[in-house]
Each structure stands twice: as C-alpha cells, then as structure tokens.
Design brief:
By secondary structure, this protein is an alpha+beta fold. About 15% of the residues lie in helices and about 40% in strands. It folds into 2 domains: about 30-115, Immunoglobulin-like (Sandwich), CATH 2.60.40; about 120-385, Beta-galactosidase, Chain A, domain 5 (Distorted Sandwich). An 8-stranded antiparallel sheet has the order 14-15-16-17-24-21-20-19, covered by helices on one side. The N and C termini lie far apart (about 55 Å). InterPro entries: DUF4861.
Length: about 400
C-alpha cells in the first residue's frame, strides 16, 4: 500500500468517525424536557421519574434522554411497575448544578445506542437462606425476613427469625455482594458475619425495628407485624431496584392493621424509600434500634429527620429516617430493659392510607462518612432534596 493510500484510509476512518459522532449527537428529536434545581446545592444521584402519561407516548422502550448542552445520552432504566409487561416509567439521574436548569431532548434510540452501565441496584428473594429478601446498591445493603423464617421460630427449628425489622448489611465495596455472601453461606466457605475486606453483617435486629421497620402505637405500647408473607421483585438495574412486600393482617390493641409496601433503593443513595400502604391507623412509628442505648439520638422535627449514631464493634454507624415535613410529626425515644425493644421512633402521618419515608445508614468503616456530623449533614441535605424535588417541565 502506498503512502497516499494509507493517508486516504486514515482520512476515510476519520470521516466515518465524524459521521458516527454527528449521528449520535443528532438523534431524531421528538420533544424536550426542562429539569430545574431550585436549591443552592449541587444535585446528583437523584432519580427523575418520567411516565408515559407525562411524556404523552405509548412506548418508552425506544426513547433516549440526551443532554442538549453536551449531546450526551443519559443512562436510563425503564420500569414496569404493575407487571403487565408494558413499561410505565423511564428513569434517569441528571447532574444538576446549584440553582440551575438543563434541557434534555427526548430522542429515538435503538438498544445498541443506549449507554450501558453496570447493574449495581439489585434485589432478590433468597430461598437458600430460609426466605430472606435482600437488596443493595453501590453504597449499602439490607434484608428482611419471610414466612419460612417465622415458621422456624414458631416451631423451634434451626435458623429461626421472627421480625419485621430491617437488617443492615455493612458493605465497604461499590460492587454487588449479596450473591457472594449468600454463596459463602450455602457452600460453607465462609461467613458474612466476618469482614474479609468487603464488609459484614454484624448489625443485630432481633425483634427491634432495625433500620426503618414500623409500629403502631396505642396508648403507651407499640405493636408490630410479623414477617412478610408475599414478595414481588419489580425492577433491578443501573439506577434503581424496587420490590413489593405484603404482610399478614396484624393486631394493634384490637385494631386490625392491613399493610403492604413498595420499597426502592437508588444508585448512590444510603437510604431506602418506603411507600407503606396501610389501613387501620392514622399514624405510624418508624423505628431505629438503639441496641445497647449507649449511642446518640439527634434529629429535627421541623426539618423531618431523626438519627442514631453509635459504636458498632471496631467502628461506628449512623442510622436515620427522613420524611417530608408535612408527614413528619415528631420523634421520640423508647427505652426498655427488654432486649431489642429500645428504639427511637419517627412519628409519621398516614394520608389516604399511605405514608412515604426514607430509612438507611452510613457505616464509618466504609469510608463514606467520617463522623456523626458528616452523617447528619447528609441527612439534612437529603431532607432538603425530598422537600424540594427537581422540577420537570415538558417542552413540546
């Protein structure tokens, strides 16, 4: 090949590259949305949910979301919330500067053109460990307990658990660990109760509320449900995992409580969102276990958050609950000499048989938070975000 031909080939490759680049930045634009951040803080890892009705489209599967300023396609995730096989929402996480707005074009894309991202938001039913349901993202992991674990408790069998509390799995790595840790358990190659570099489960729940389990208070007593009885995984992906849990009707001093919930955890967040559907009570109490009661309770009822910071073996951990100001009534500490009954409770209003709140934790050994003050700062900012959500406007 002559030098001239070599140069022609190079120019041809450059031309093809330019054409591909141009075509990627000049997708077929259908319409646009404007996202506005009204707060004086930068906002990242905040999911924007766009529905078919809002976008006025029938099919979300062929849509992409493109930053008009940079031409960059955003990582998206479509979700079928009702299980009918049709996607109801498209999700994305815009990066928003303080007091800013951005235009995003809704464009036509193929599956191969959509940006790929690792599926760090994950959840599943765990039949190999009785019947846990576990979920995680790149920051934290959790689990709750099912009917087989309750059956084992009630019949004096091995591995019993009677609790509707929420367990915290303390991870220090950004990649998924649920399957790896349960594999250790099933293959007897190790235990997730020891930290070998990825973290561990050393957070005791027992009959407590753990991290965000609920109670109904009648007079001065708190009443709980037992283990969940039904589950359904809704979605897993790069931006969110969500699932449905249902509980057997339970009694609160003669009041029958009907409870189900949709729980979700988004990429980059330390808090799980709880959407509780409830009949039989006008308020609930979402709790954080106090363990040995040697930690520090703090909170702000006006801003809608409560926290507990404590020493946990060789490290420290902060747990927290946040709700919108209109929902968060107050918080109270309940101390008991009976094991696992000491909790700090967020008192939350139930409206139209539903209450929404966020609960989670920050583990010092993960490197995410260095102190109680950093954890509380995170809760304060998170509270500001949920009370001032990103504004999304459709531009035809």
């Amino acid at each position: 090949m002559t030098m001239k031909h070599k140069h022609l080939n190079i120019y041809a490759c450059l031309l093809v590259g330019l054409i591909i680049s141009y075509s990627c930045s000049q997708k077929e634009k259908r319409f646009s949305i404007i996202v506005k951040n009204t707060l004086d803080i930068e906002r990242t890892f905040e999911v924007v949910e766009l529905t078919k009705d809002f976008l006025k489209v029938e099919d979300l599967s062929t849509l992409g979301i493109q930053d008009e300023g940079t031409g960059k396609l955003q990582v998206t995730q479509t979700v079928d919330n009702d299980g009918d096989g049709i996607m109801d929402q498209i999700l994305f996480q815009p990066e928003m500067a303080a007091n800013s707005e951005k235009t995003f074009n809704i464009v036509a894309v193929t599956d191969t053109e959509k940006p790929k991202a690792p599926e760090l938001c994950y959840s599943r039913f765990v039949p190999e460990r009785t019947d846990d349901y576990a979920w995680e993202n790149n920051k934290v992991a959790f689990r709750v307990y099912g009917p087989n674990a309750q059956f084992r408790y009630e019949n004096n069998l091995k591995e019993p658990t009677l609790s509707s509390g929420v367990d915290a799995w303390l991870k220090r790595v950004p990649y998924p660990i649920i399957n790896k840790w349960y594999k250790k358990y099933t293959e007897k190659t190790g235990t997730y109760h020891k930290d070998t570099g990825e973290g561990l489960d050393n957070f005791h729940v027992g009959a407590s509320r753990g991290v965000g389990g609920i109670a109904v208070k009648v007079d001065s007593s708190y009443y709980y449900s037992k283990n969940y009885v039904k589950y359904k995984t809704i979605t897993t992906g790069p931006l969110r995992t969500s699932f449905y849990l249902e509980y057997e009707d339970w009694d609160a001093a003669g009041n029958t409580i009907k409870e189900s919930r949709v729980m979700s955890l988004d990429l980059g967040n330390n808090l799980t969102r709880f959407i509780i559907s409830l009949e039989g009570a006008n308020t609930i109490y979402s709790g954080l276990t106090l363990h040995d009661r040697k930690g520090n309770v703090s909170g702000d009822s006006d801003e809608g958050w409560v926290s507990y910071w404590e020493t946990l073996e060789e490290s420290e951990i902060g747990t927290g609950i946040i709700a919108k100001k209109s929902t968060f009534l107050d918080f109270e500490t309940y101390d008991s000499n009976i094991k696992d009954l000491s909790n700090v409770y967020a008192h939350l209003k139930v409206e139209n048989n539903q209450v929404v709140y966020y609960a989670g934790f920050g583990w010092k050994a993960s490197g995410q938070f260095k102190s109680k003050e950093e954890w509380e700062d995170y809760l304060v900012v998170f509270s500001r975000r949920i009370n001032n959500p990103l504004i999304v406007e459709l531009v035809p």
